[in-house]
Structures are given as structure tokens and as C-alpha cells.
Amino acid sequence: MKALRFYAKRDIRFENADAPIISDEKDVKIKVKAVGICGSDVSRYAKLGPYVPGNVWGHEFSGEVVEVGSDVTKVKVGQKVTACPALFCGKCEACQKSIFAQCENLDVIGAHRYGAFAEYIVMPERNVVPIPDEVDYDDAAMVEPSCVVVHGYYKTGIKAGDTVVVVGCGTIGLLAIEWAKIFGAKMVIALDIDDTKLELAKKVGADHTVNTMGKEPSEEVQKVNNGKGTDIVIESAGTPITSAQSFSLSRKGGKVLFVGIPYGDVMVKRLYFEKIVRCELSVYGSWNAISAPFPGQEWETTVHCLKTGQLNVKPLITHVVPLSKGREVFEITAERKEPFGKIIFHPED
Hints:
Layout: E1 2-8, E2 11-16, E3 27-36, H1 39-48, E4 55-56, E5 60-68, E6 80-83, E7 86-87, H2 93-96, E8 107-108, E9 120-124, E10 128-130, H3 137-140, H4 143-156, E11 163-167, H5 171-182, E12 187-192, H6 195-203, E13 208-211, H7 217-224, E14 230-235, H8 240-245, E15 250-258, H9 270-278, E16 282-285, H10 297-308, E17 317-322, H11 326-335, E18 342-346
Parallel strand pairs: 11-12, 11-14, 12-13, 14-15, 15-16, 17-18
Antiparallel strand pairs: 1-2, 1-4, 3-5, 3-9, 3-18, 5-6, 6-10, 7-8
Helix pairs in contact: 4-5, 4-10
């Protein structure tokens, strides 16, 4: 089969790879129809390199079931599906407590085993999630990043009437804006330094947008929130600067949720860090998108809201291109040659 294989920083190749086969009675073989580039893929391509040179990567995907193991009952051939990319060990203390996101040996497809930047992928049945006919393949490939956001919000206990500030308006930030509204937030403030992203933030539901370039973000938030901070702060930019600033954006007794990953040391000003103690903040880290019963309520919730139209991910998708153009597309992300949001590959185009 044809696949994108990642060999080193900025070295990805569209070439032949061995097609995966069903080796377990609980395996499901899927023909990949759509697969998205994650922000972590962009960072790994340009900055970090692969875990396993020559591996097929990619973990946000949807497709059609083409073969099932003898004991598979959850899905059938011809069915539209997505799949949770996380692989937990089932043996460590966290797994025994069904806290799968904290598994000591947690892995993700595309890291050490073949991922979905390919024509086919084989997944364990427990990871496979059926998709209703009303949801197209491109939207279904957005289920996993949506679940990342929902997983984090569940930690905060978000409720109707809350005020939310979202720091960073990439894919995860835009999804955080949409989900804040779905959960009933009365006000969502979006912060970024890119006006194009802020325009998109408005389209998906942000009540206020602020370009924070050269500004103190906490002062800007207070201007639009009656001199106060917000109930919930979502850090989704994943930069050292925004990670430090996020503590200053909350009201007293508020909550700060980190879903972004800064690839650099976070140096926090004393006045920002003091907020944790003096304002009695609750600070959450959120990793992955899984809970019990696996893969978790995040997946059921996202699929349901896509089906009903409450969640609209189409505005987030800016590029749909053949998988064969993978190298050129990743160079665009590395060089920032043009604006981009979620990029979706079609393996068979």
C-alpha cells in the first residue's frame, strides 16, 4: 500500500509500505478515507523527528471497515468508523483503576506502530468507534481532536453560565470555543496574535476576540468581563509565554486547564504564579482523550453532537489534499508559507 513514512526531521516520503493484516480475532481492518494532521505532527515534523525512523504516522482518521476478525461484534464490513488512537497496557496501576489516560505505558498509533497516513490500518475492536451515516468522512476525522477538548472540559466541571477564555485559536482552541458554547458558557473570549485565526474564532462562537500582541492579556480580559477574570481558562496555544500568562486570566477560585504542550521551558512571573495561591485556583493538566469505559464518554458525546449538528467542524478544515502531496503540505506547515487550519489527507485521491 501507499503511505507517508517519516524518517527524520523534515524528511517524510510517500512510498510503499507493507499493508497491515488482521492477526487477532478482535482486529478490525479499515480503509482510510480521511486523515488529519495534528498539531503534534507539525511539531514532530519540524522540530523533534520520529520515534521510529520509517514509521507510518497519523492518528486522526476515519474510514470504512473492510475486514474483521472472527470475534468482532461491534462493527461489520462496510461500516463507517473512526478509532481512538490510544493504546493502553491494561496492567499498570492506572489501568487497573481505569484511568487509561495515565497509563504508564500509554502509546499512540503513529508513534511506535503504523498509523493512519496510509491506505489501510488495523485497529483493536475496542478502539473502533462507529460513525452514523449523517457524518461525512472528513468530519469524522475530527472526532479525535474534539475528544481531546471534551476530555479536558470534563475535568473542569464546566456548567451553563460559566465564562471561558480560550488562549490560542488553532484547531484545539477553536474546538474549545465551540464546546464551551455547547456546554452552555454565557461568554467566550478568544485570545491569539493572528487576526485570521481570531476571525475564525468569531465564526465558531467566540463572543469577544482579542489580538494580544504587545498587550497584557489579563487586562484585556478584564476589559470585556466587567473588571474580572473568567471562570475557566483554556490554554491551547502551547507556548511558554501563554502557558505562564494563563494563570493571570482566571477569577478568584477559577480554573485553569492546560491542553497545549509548550516545547520550551515555561518561566512564570511571580505575579502570575502567585495567583494560584492567592486566588485559590484549580489547575488541571489534560492528556489524551480517553476514559472509562474505554474509549470513553468523550467519544460518544462528540459523535452525537456531530450527528445533531451542534458541533460544526467544517469551518476548521482549510485544506483537503491527496496523501501523495504529504511532503509538500508538511513543508507548508514547517515554513508557514500560507495560513492553514486543519489539513485533511485523502489516501485514495
